[in-house]
C-alpha cells in the first residue's frame, strides 16, 4: 500500500520537542543488536482471512443481502441478523440464533457511503449497530447546531435506519498524560510487538507521530527506544516504531497491565459485537468494556479514520496506541474517543489484522508458561458462540520484564535492609524523597491537565 514500511535516517537532534512514547501498555524492552533469536510470531491476517467473530462464517455464506452482521449474546451464544425466513432456518441449523431485521448489510454499506459523501464535519462519527439494526451517527460538543442540522437532514433522507445521538466531550486523538518516555513527536502508549522476520517493531497508533519520530525511555533523550518508520493516518490509524537495536528482547509477547503483571498474547483476530474486551494504557492501566459496533468512521480534527471498532471501554490522555485484547488474542490498538475513566465514554480502536496486513509484519507471541511454544488461543469461530461476555478474561498471566521498573517495586528494594547496608539506607531515603516529590509534582500536573481536558483524551 501507499504507506509501506521504510527505513528512515535518524535525526541528529533527538529531542527537539517534549513529548513521550508510552511504555506501560506493552513490552518496550532493551534491544540487543546482535540477538540471534527470532521471536515466535503468528502471520498477519486480512479481514477476509480472520473470523470477525463467531457468526462471520455464516454471514459470509448467506451474503450481504440476507444478513446484517452478528454478535455475541449475553449467554455467549452467537446471534445472526437475517432478512428472510430461509436464512433464519440455515442459521438455526448451524446452531446459532437468528434475529429477523428490516435492513441488510447492503443497506448498512449504502448508508455509510451516503454519510461519507456528505460534507465532512469534525467531531462526528458513525458506526454499524448490528443489534439495533441501525447506523448510529454521533456528534460531540464541538459540532455546531447548523452542522448538526445539515447532517440530520442527510440522515432523514435514509429514514429511521439512521439514529442521531449527541455525545458529551470531544472526539480527539490529543496526545498527553503518558509516563515520562519522550519523543520528538508526542506522547502515546505502545500497542503490540511485531516482526518482519529480520527486525522487530512496536505497533502503535498512526497519529502518535509521523515517519522519523524518535522515541526515548528517559527525559534526557539518552535511552533511545526506536524510530517511526511507517504507518497510516488519517484514513487508518497505525504505525511502526523500529527498535533501535533491531530486537524487542525478552518478554516481547507480553503486554503489561500494571503492578508488574502482564498478559501473554498468543494470537490475533478481529473483534465481534458484544465481545468483552480489555484495554491497557500507560495512563489508566487495565480497563474492560464491550465492543458496541464495527466499521466505525470518526471525523477527528486531524482527518477522517474509517474501519474502526467502537466500544464503551474508558480511556484517558496518553492511552492512545495501547493494546486491546481478550483471552490472549490481540484485537486492536487505541485510536481515539471521548470521555475518561471517571465519567465513561466512547473509545475507538484500529483493528490489528488490517495493520499487520498493510505493514506486512507478524505479531510476536508469548511462549507458554513452561517456556515452550504457546498454543495460539483460538479466535471465536464456532457457530455456537464463544464465552459469555461476563466470563471473558484478558488472557493467561505472565511477569513483566525488560521495561522501566515499577516505582513501587524500586522503592521497596531501596528500603529493604536485607538488600542494602545501613549507609545505603540514607541514600535510599534521599532517593525516596526525590522520587516522591517528583511523583507529587507529576500528579499535580496530571490533575491540572484532567481538569482542563476533562472530557477529552488522546
Key structural traits:
3 domains, 29% strand, alpha+beta, disordered N terminus, 458 residues, 7-stranded antiparallel sheet
Q: What string gives the helices and strands in order?
A: EHEEHEHEEHEEEEEEEEEEEEEEEHEEHH
> Helical percent range?
10-25%
| Major sheet size, sense and barrel closure | 7 strands, antiparallel
| Strand element count | 23
Spatial strand arrangement across the major sheet: 1-22-8-9-12-11-10
Low-confidence stretches: 1-38, 44-52, 174-181, 373-384, 403-420, 444-458
Q: Please tally the helical runs, counting DSSP H or I stretches of 4 or more residues.
A: 7
Structural class: alpha+beta
Strand content: 25-35%
Radius of gyration: 23 Å
- Spatial shape: globular
How would you describe what is shown here?
The protein is an alpha+beta fold and 458 residues long. It folds into three domains: 1-52 and 103-403, no CATH class; 56-100; 407-452. The chain has seven helices and 23 strands. Strand 19 (323-326) and strand 20 (329-340) form a beta hairpin. The radius of gyration is 23 Å and the shape is globular.
Amino acid at each position: 500500500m501507499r504507506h509501506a514500511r521504510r527505513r528512515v535516517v535518524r535525526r541528529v537532534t533527538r529531542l527537539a520537542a517534549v513529548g513521550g512514547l508510552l511504555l506501560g501498555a506493552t513490552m518496550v524492552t532493551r534491544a540487543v543488536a546482535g540477538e540471534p533469536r527470532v521471536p515466535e510470531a503468528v502471520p498477519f491476517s486480512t479481514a477476509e482471512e480472520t473470523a470477525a467473530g463467531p457468526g462471520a462464517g455464516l454471514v459470509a455464506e448467506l451474503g450481504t443481502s440476507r444478513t446484517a452482521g452478528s454478535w455475541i449474546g449475553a449467554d455467549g451464544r452467537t446471534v445472526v441478523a437475517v432478512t428472510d425466513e430461509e436464512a433464519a432456518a440455515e442459521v438455526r441449523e448451524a446452531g446459532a440464533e437468528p434475529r429477523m431485521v428490516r435492513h441488510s448489510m447492503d443497506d448498512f454499506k449504502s448508508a455509510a457511503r451516503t454519510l461519507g459523501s456528505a460534507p465532512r464535519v469534525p467531531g462526528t462519527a458513525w458506526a454499524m449497530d448490528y443489534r439495533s439494526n441501525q447506523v448510529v451517527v454521533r456528534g460531540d460538543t464541538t459540532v455546531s447546531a447548523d452542522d448538526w442540522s445539515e447532517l440530520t437532514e442527510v440522515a432523514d433522507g435514509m429514514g429511521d435506519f439512521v439514529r442521531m445521538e449527541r455525545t458529551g466531550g470531544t472526539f480527539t486523538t490529543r496526545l498527553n498524560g503518558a509516563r515520562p518516555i519522550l519523543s520528538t513527536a508526542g506522547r502515546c502508549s505502545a500497542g503490540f510487538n511485531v516482526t518482519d522476520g529480520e527486525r522487530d517493531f512496536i505497533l502503535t497508533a498512526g497519529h502518535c507521530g509521523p515517519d522519523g519520530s524518535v522515541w526515548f525511555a528517559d527525559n534526557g533523550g539518552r535511552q533511545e527506544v526506536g524510530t517511526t518508520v511507517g504507518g497510516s493516518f488519517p484514513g487508518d490509524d497505525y504505525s511502526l516504531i523500529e527498535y533501535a537495536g533491531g530486537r524487542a528482547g525478552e518478554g516481547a509477547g507480553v503486554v503489561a497491565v500494571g503492578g508488574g503483571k502482564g498478559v501473554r498474547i498468543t494470537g490475533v483476530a478481529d473483534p465481534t459485537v458484544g465481545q468483552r474486551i480489555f484495554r491497557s494504557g500507560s495512563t489508566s492501566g487495565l480497563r474492560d468494556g464491550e465492543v458496541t459496533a464495527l466499521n466505525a468512521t470518526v471525523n477527528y480534527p486531524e482527518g477522517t479514520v474509517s474501519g474502526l471498532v467502537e466500544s464503551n471501554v474508558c480511556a484517558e490522555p496518553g492511552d492512545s496506541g495501547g493494546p486491546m485484547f481478550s483471552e490472549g488474542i490481540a484485537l486492536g490498538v487505541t485510536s481515539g474517543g471521548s470521555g475518561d475513566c471517571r465519567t465513561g465514554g466512547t473509545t475507538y480502536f484500529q483493528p490489528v489484522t488490517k495493520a499487520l496486513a498493510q505493514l506486512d509484519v507478524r505479531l510476536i507471541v508469548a511462549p507458554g508458561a513452561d517456556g515452550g511454544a504457546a498454543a495460539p488461543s483460538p479466535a471465536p469461530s464456532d457457530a455456537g458462540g464463544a464465552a459469555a461476555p461476563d466470563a471473558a478474561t484478558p488472557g493467561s498471566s505472565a511477569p513483566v520484564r525488560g521495561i522501566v521498573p515499577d516505582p513501587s517495586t524500586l522503592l521497596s528494594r531501596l528500603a529493604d535492609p536485607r538488600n542494602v547496608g545501613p549507609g545505603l539506607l540514607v541514600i535510599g531515603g534521599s532517593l525516596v524523597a526525590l522520587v516522591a516529590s517528583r511523583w507529587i509534582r507529576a500528579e499535580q500536573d496530571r490533575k491540572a491537565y484532567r481538569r482542563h481536558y476533562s472530557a477529552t483524551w488522546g
